[in-house]
Amino acid sequence: MNDIKIKSALFGVAVGDALGVPFEFNSRQTIAKNPVTDMTGYDTYNLPAGSWSDDSSLAFCLTEALTQDYNLTIIGQNFVKWYHQNYWTPQGHVFDIGIATRQAISRLAKGEKPELAGGFDETDNGNGSLMRILPLLFYLLDKPIKERYDITKKVSSITHGHIRSVIACFYYLEFAKQILSGKDKFEIYKNLQTDISNHLASLAINPTEIAKFDRLLKSDITKLDESKIHSSGYVLHTLEASIWCLLTTDNYNEAVLKAVNLGSDTDTTGAVTGGLAGLLYGIENIPTNWIKQIARRDDIENLAERLAEKIASH
Protein backbone atom coordinates (compact mmCIF):
# COMPACT_ATOMS: atom_id res chain seq x y z
CA MET A 1 0.00 0.00 0.00
CA ASN A 2 1.57 3.29 -1.03
CA ASP A 3 1.15 6.37 1.10
CA ILE A 4 -0.47 8.29 -1.79
CA LYS A 5 -3.70 6.29 -1.44
CA ILE A 6 -3.74 6.82 2.32
CA LYS A 7 -3.04 10.56 1.89
CA SER A 8 -5.84 10.74 -0.69
CA ALA A 9 -8.25 9.27 1.87
CA LEU A 10 -7.08 11.30 4.89
CA PHE A 11 -6.89 14.63 3.07
CA GLY A 12 -10.12 13.76 1.27
CA VAL A 13 -11.83 13.55 4.66
CA ALA A 14 -10.08 16.57 6.22
CA VAL A 15 -10.65 18.94 3.30
CA GLY A 16 -14.34 18.03 2.99
CA ASP A 17 -14.69 18.42 6.75
CA ALA A 18 -12.90 21.80 6.88
CA LEU A 19 -15.02 23.15 4.00
CA GLY A 20 -18.13 22.35 6.01
CA VAL A 21 -17.04 23.47 9.51
CA PRO A 22 -17.92 27.18 9.13
CA PHE A 23 -21.43 26.34 7.90
CA GLU A 24 -22.53 23.62 10.31
CA PHE A 25 -26.19 23.96 11.39
CA ASN A 26 -27.00 26.39 8.56
CA SER A 27 -30.08 25.33 6.62
CA ARG A 28 -29.98 24.48 2.94
CA GLN A 29 -32.14 27.52 2.25
CA THR A 30 -29.75 29.85 4.08
CA ILE A 31 -26.68 28.47 2.29
CA ALA A 32 -28.46 28.63 -1.09
CA LYS A 33 -28.52 32.44 -0.80
CA ASN A 34 -24.71 32.46 -0.71
CA PRO A 35 -23.43 29.02 -1.77
CA VAL A 36 -20.10 27.69 -0.54
CA THR A 37 -17.51 27.79 -3.34
CA ASP A 38 -14.19 27.83 -1.49
CA MET A 39 -12.37 27.12 1.77
CA THR A 40 -13.32 29.78 4.33
CA GLY A 41 -13.14 30.17 8.09
CA TYR A 42 -14.90 31.57 11.14
CA ASP A 43 -18.73 31.67 11.19
CA THR A 44 -20.17 28.75 13.24
CA TYR A 45 -17.12 28.00 15.40
CA ASN A 46 -15.03 31.13 14.77
CA LEU A 47 -12.03 29.07 13.65
CA PRO A 48 -9.53 29.86 10.88
CA ALA A 49 -9.92 28.34 7.41
CA GLY A 50 -8.65 24.77 7.19
CA SER A 51 -9.80 23.77 10.69
CA TRP A 52 -11.28 20.28 10.67
CA SER A 53 -13.71 18.93 13.25
CA ASP A 54 -14.27 15.83 15.37
CA ASP A 55 -14.88 13.88 12.15
CA SER A 56 -11.25 14.12 11.06
CA SER A 57 -9.90 14.09 14.63
CA LEU A 58 -11.45 10.68 15.30
CA ALA A 59 -10.43 9.39 11.85
CA PHE A 60 -6.84 10.40 12.69
CA CYS A 61 -7.12 8.79 16.14
CA LEU A 62 -8.16 5.56 14.41
CA THR A 63 -5.32 5.87 11.87
CA GLU A 64 -2.84 6.51 14.68
CA ALA A 65 -3.96 3.31 16.44
CA LEU A 66 -3.57 1.33 13.21
CA THR A 67 0.05 2.50 12.85
CA GLN A 68 0.72 0.31 15.91
CA ASP A 69 -1.66 -2.56 15.23
CA TYR A 70 -5.34 -3.32 15.07
CA ASN A 71 -6.35 -3.11 18.72
CA LEU A 72 -9.80 -1.94 19.84
CA THR A 73 -8.50 -0.85 23.23
CA ILE A 74 -5.89 1.45 21.69
CA ILE A 75 -8.49 2.94 19.32
CA GLY A 76 -10.81 3.59 22.26
CA GLN A 77 -7.99 5.07 24.36
CA ASN A 78 -7.12 7.43 21.50
CA PHE A 79 -10.72 8.66 21.44
CA VAL A 80 -10.53 9.30 25.19
CA LYS A 81 -7.22 11.15 24.72
CA TRP A 82 -8.82 13.28 22.03
CA TYR A 83 -11.74 14.32 24.21
CA HIS A 84 -9.85 14.76 27.50
CA GLN A 85 -6.37 15.80 26.30
CA ASN A 86 -7.06 17.47 22.92
CA TYR A 87 -5.12 14.73 21.10
CA TRP A 88 -5.32 15.06 17.28
CA THR A 89 -7.23 18.34 17.40
CA PRO A 90 -6.58 20.97 14.70
CA GLN A 91 -6.18 23.98 17.00
CA GLY A 92 -5.48 22.38 20.40
CA HIS A 93 -9.05 22.13 21.67
CA VAL A 94 -12.17 20.02 21.09
CA PHE A 95 -14.97 22.23 19.78
CA ASP A 96 -17.54 19.72 18.54
CA ILE A 97 -18.70 16.28 19.64
CA GLY A 98 -21.82 14.22 19.05
CA ILE A 99 -23.95 13.16 22.01
CA ALA A 100 -23.57 9.41 21.40
CA THR A 101 -19.81 9.79 20.93
CA ARG A 102 -19.46 11.77 24.15
CA GLN A 103 -21.46 9.17 26.09
CA ALA A 104 -19.38 6.34 24.60
CA ILE A 105 -16.09 8.08 25.46
CA SER A 106 -17.34 8.56 29.01
CA ARG A 107 -18.02 4.79 29.22
CA LEU A 108 -14.59 4.03 27.73
CA ALA A 109 -12.92 6.31 30.27
CA LYS A 110 -14.65 4.34 33.05
CA GLY A 111 -13.25 1.06 31.69
CA GLU A 112 -16.07 -0.28 29.51
CA LYS A 113 -14.96 -2.77 26.83
CA PRO A 114 -14.58 -0.81 23.57
CA GLU A 115 -16.96 -2.98 21.51
CA LEU A 116 -19.65 -2.40 24.16
CA ALA A 117 -19.09 1.33 24.71
CA GLY A 118 -21.32 2.63 21.92
CA GLY A 119 -25.10 2.88 22.23
CA PHE A 120 -27.16 -0.02 20.87
CA ASP A 121 -30.54 1.73 20.78
CA GLU A 122 -32.32 2.73 17.58
CA THR A 123 -31.98 6.36 18.69
CA ASP A 124 -28.17 5.94 18.75
CA ASN A 125 -27.79 6.23 14.99
CA GLY A 126 -26.00 9.51 14.51
CA ASN A 127 -23.20 9.58 11.94
CA GLY A 128 -20.38 9.50 14.52
CA SER A 129 -18.92 6.13 13.55
CA LEU A 130 -19.39 6.57 9.79
CA MET A 131 -17.50 9.88 9.78
CA ARG A 132 -14.30 8.31 11.19
CA ILE A 133 -14.35 4.79 9.74
CA LEU A 134 -12.47 5.25 6.43
CA PRO A 135 -8.89 4.60 7.67
CA LEU A 136 -10.01 1.09 8.68
CA LEU A 137 -10.14 0.32 4.94
CA PHE A 138 -6.37 -0.03 4.74
CA TYR A 139 -6.29 -2.65 7.49
CA LEU A 140 -9.18 -4.64 5.97
CA LEU A 141 -8.01 -4.76 2.35
CA ASP A 142 -6.76 -8.33 2.15
CA LYS A 143 -9.37 -9.85 4.47
CA PRO A 144 -12.43 -11.90 3.42
CA ILE A 145 -15.83 -10.20 3.54
CA LYS A 146 -16.95 -11.93 6.75
CA GLU A 147 -13.90 -10.66 8.60
CA ARG A 148 -14.27 -7.19 7.06
CA TYR A 149 -17.82 -7.04 8.35
CA ASP A 150 -16.96 -8.36 11.84
CA ILE A 151 -14.09 -5.90 12.34
CA THR A 152 -16.15 -2.98 10.98
CA LYS A 153 -18.90 -3.88 13.43
CA LYS A 154 -16.49 -3.79 16.37
CA VAL A 155 -14.86 -0.50 15.35
CA SER A 156 -18.24 1.17 14.75
CA SER A 157 -19.49 -0.13 18.10
CA ILE A 158 -16.84 1.78 20.04
CA THR A 159 -19.22 4.73 19.67
CA HIS A 160 -22.22 3.41 17.69
CA GLY A 161 -23.29 -0.20 18.22
CA HIS A 162 -26.71 -0.31 16.55
CA ILE A 163 -26.92 -2.51 13.45
CA ARG A 164 -27.92 0.45 11.26
CA SER A 165 -24.69 2.31 12.01
CA VAL A 166 -22.73 -0.90 11.48
CA ILE A 167 -24.31 -1.55 8.05
CA ALA A 168 -23.69 2.08 7.02
CA CYS A 169 -20.00 1.79 7.91
CA PHE A 170 -19.77 -1.58 6.15
CA TYR A 171 -21.40 -0.26 2.96
CA TYR A 172 -19.11 2.77 2.96
CA LEU A 173 -15.92 0.73 3.42
CA GLU A 174 -16.97 -1.77 0.75
CA PHE A 175 -17.53 1.14 -1.66
CA ALA A 176 -14.08 2.50 -0.76
CA LYS A 177 -12.49 -0.94 -1.22
CA GLN A 178 -13.83 -1.22 -4.78
CA ILE A 179 -12.64 2.33 -5.57
CA LEU A 180 -9.14 1.21 -4.52
CA SER A 181 -9.37 -1.77 -6.85
CA GLY A 182 -9.91 0.67 -9.74
CA LYS A 183 -13.58 0.06 -10.50
CA ASP A 184 -15.91 2.69 -11.97
CA LYS A 185 -18.13 4.35 -9.36
CA PHE A 186 -21.40 3.35 -11.09
CA GLU A 187 -20.17 -0.22 -11.45
CA ILE A 188 -19.39 -0.21 -7.71
CA TYR A 189 -22.88 1.06 -6.90
CA LYS A 190 -24.41 -1.84 -8.87
CA ASN A 191 -21.96 -4.40 -7.46
CA LEU A 192 -22.79 -3.45 -3.89
CA GLN A 193 -26.51 -3.91 -4.49
CA THR A 194 -25.71 -7.61 -4.85
CA ASP A 195 -22.65 -8.00 -2.61
CA ILE A 196 -23.98 -6.13 0.44
CA SER A 197 -27.51 -7.54 0.13
CA ASN A 198 -26.18 -11.10 -0.09
CA HIS A 199 -23.82 -10.70 2.85
CA LEU A 200 -26.44 -9.09 5.09
CA ALA A 201 -28.94 -11.81 4.16
CA SER A 202 -26.37 -14.45 5.14
CA LEU A 203 -26.10 -12.89 8.61
CA ALA A 204 -29.82 -13.24 9.30
CA ILE A 205 -30.13 -9.53 10.11
CA ASN A 206 -33.67 -8.28 10.65
CA PRO A 207 -35.04 -7.61 7.13
CA THR A 208 -36.67 -4.35 8.29
CA GLU A 209 -33.19 -3.04 9.10
CA ILE A 210 -31.81 -4.06 5.71
CA ALA A 211 -34.85 -2.39 4.07
CA LYS A 212 -33.76 0.95 5.56
CA PHE A 213 -30.99 0.85 2.93
CA ASP A 214 -33.33 0.28 -0.04
CA ARG A 215 -32.51 3.64 -1.68
CA LEU A 216 -28.92 2.41 -2.00
CA LEU A 217 -29.44 -1.34 -2.36
CA LYS A 218 -32.56 -1.51 -4.53
CA SER A 219 -32.93 1.69 -6.53
CA ASP A 220 -30.89 4.29 -8.38
CA ILE A 221 -30.19 7.09 -5.91
CA THR A 222 -28.83 9.33 -8.69
CA LYS A 223 -32.37 9.72 -10.04
CA LEU A 224 -33.48 11.48 -6.85
CA ASP A 225 -33.84 15.24 -6.77
CA GLU A 226 -31.78 17.16 -4.22
CA SER A 227 -34.98 17.85 -2.23
CA LYS A 228 -35.18 14.10 -1.50
CA ILE A 229 -31.61 13.95 -0.17
CA HIS A 230 -31.30 14.75 3.52
CA SER A 231 -28.22 16.06 5.29
CA SER A 232 -29.00 15.76 8.99
CA GLY A 233 -26.73 14.03 11.52
CA TYR A 234 -28.61 10.72 11.05
CA VAL A 235 -26.24 8.03 9.77
CA LEU A 236 -28.45 6.91 6.90
CA HIS A 237 -28.91 10.48 5.68
CA THR A 238 -25.15 11.06 5.70
CA LEU A 239 -24.40 7.83 3.83
CA GLU A 240 -27.08 8.43 1.19
CA ALA A 241 -26.02 12.07 0.72
CA SER A 242 -22.36 11.14 0.30
CA ILE A 243 -23.07 8.46 -2.32
CA TRP A 244 -25.48 10.80 -4.12
CA CYS A 245 -22.91 13.63 -4.18
CA LEU A 246 -20.19 11.25 -5.41
CA LEU A 247 -22.33 9.77 -8.21
CA THR A 248 -23.81 13.07 -9.44
CA THR A 249 -20.51 14.98 -9.83
CA ASP A 250 -17.32 14.44 -11.81
CA ASN A 251 -14.46 15.65 -9.62
CA TYR A 252 -13.38 16.11 -6.01
CA ASN A 253 -14.28 19.76 -5.54
CA GLU A 254 -17.73 19.44 -7.14
CA ALA A 255 -18.51 16.45 -4.92
CA VAL A 256 -17.52 18.07 -1.60
CA LEU A 257 -19.03 21.47 -2.42
CA LYS A 258 -22.28 19.76 -3.36
CA ALA A 259 -22.17 17.96 -0.01
CA VAL A 260 -21.51 21.10 2.03
CA ASN A 261 -24.19 23.08 0.19
CA LEU A 262 -26.80 20.53 1.31
CA GLY A 263 -26.66 22.33 4.69
CA SER A 264 -27.28 21.05 8.24
CA ASP A 265 -24.46 18.63 9.17
CA THR A 266 -22.15 20.24 6.63
CA ASP A 267 -18.81 19.14 8.06
CA THR A 268 -19.73 15.46 8.30
CA THR A 269 -21.48 15.26 4.92
CA GLY A 270 -18.38 16.98 3.51
CA ALA A 271 -15.98 14.63 5.31
CA VAL A 272 -17.81 11.41 4.37
CA THR A 273 -18.21 12.49 0.74
CA GLY A 274 -14.63 13.78 0.70
CA GLY A 275 -13.16 10.48 1.86
CA LEU A 276 -14.59 8.55 -1.09
CA ALA A 277 -13.96 11.40 -3.55
CA GLY A 278 -10.34 11.65 -2.37
CA LEU A 279 -9.84 7.95 -3.06
CA LEU A 280 -11.67 8.11 -6.37
CA TYR A 281 -9.90 11.12 -7.88
CA GLY A 282 -6.62 11.02 -5.94
CA ILE A 283 -4.92 13.66 -3.82
CA GLU A 284 -3.48 15.26 -6.98
CA ASN A 285 -7.05 16.29 -7.89
CA ILE A 286 -7.87 17.90 -4.54
CA PRO A 287 -7.35 21.66 -5.06
CA THR A 288 -3.84 22.50 -3.84
CA ASN A 289 -4.91 25.77 -2.25
CA TRP A 290 -7.37 23.83 -0.08
CA ILE A 291 -4.76 21.31 1.05
CA LYS A 292 -2.31 24.13 1.82
CA GLN A 293 -4.79 25.64 4.28
CA ILE A 294 -5.46 22.41 6.18
CA ALA A 295 -4.44 22.60 9.84
CA ARG A 296 -1.51 20.30 10.76
CA ARG A 297 -0.96 19.33 7.16
CA ASP A 298 2.55 17.98 7.81
CA ASP A 299 1.30 15.87 10.73
CA ILE A 300 -1.40 14.34 8.53
CA GLU A 301 1.17 13.54 5.80
CA ASN A 302 3.43 11.95 8.39
CA LEU A 303 0.51 9.92 9.79
CA ALA A 304 -0.30 8.57 6.31
CA GLU A 305 3.36 7.64 5.76
CA ARG A 306 3.53 5.80 9.08
CA LEU A 307 0.37 3.82 8.30
CA ALA A 308 1.75 2.91 4.86
CA GLU A 309 4.98 1.68 6.50
CA LYS A 310 3.03 -0.39 9.01
CA ILE A 311 0.92 -2.05 6.31
CA ALA A 312 4.00 -2.70 4.14
CA SER A 313 5.76 -4.42 7.06
CA HIS A 314 2.98 -7.01 7.48
Automatic annotation (TrEMBL):
Keywords: Hydrolase. InterPro entries: ADP-ribosylglycohydrolase (IPR050792), Ribosyl_crysJ1 (IPR005502), Ribosyl_crysJ1_sf (IPR036705). Pfam families: ADP_ribosyl_GH (PF03747). PANTHER family: ADP-RIBOSYLGLYCOHYDROLASE, ADP-RIBOSYLHYDROLASE ARH3. Belongs to the ADP-ribosylglycohydrolase family. This is ADP-ribosylglycohydrolase.
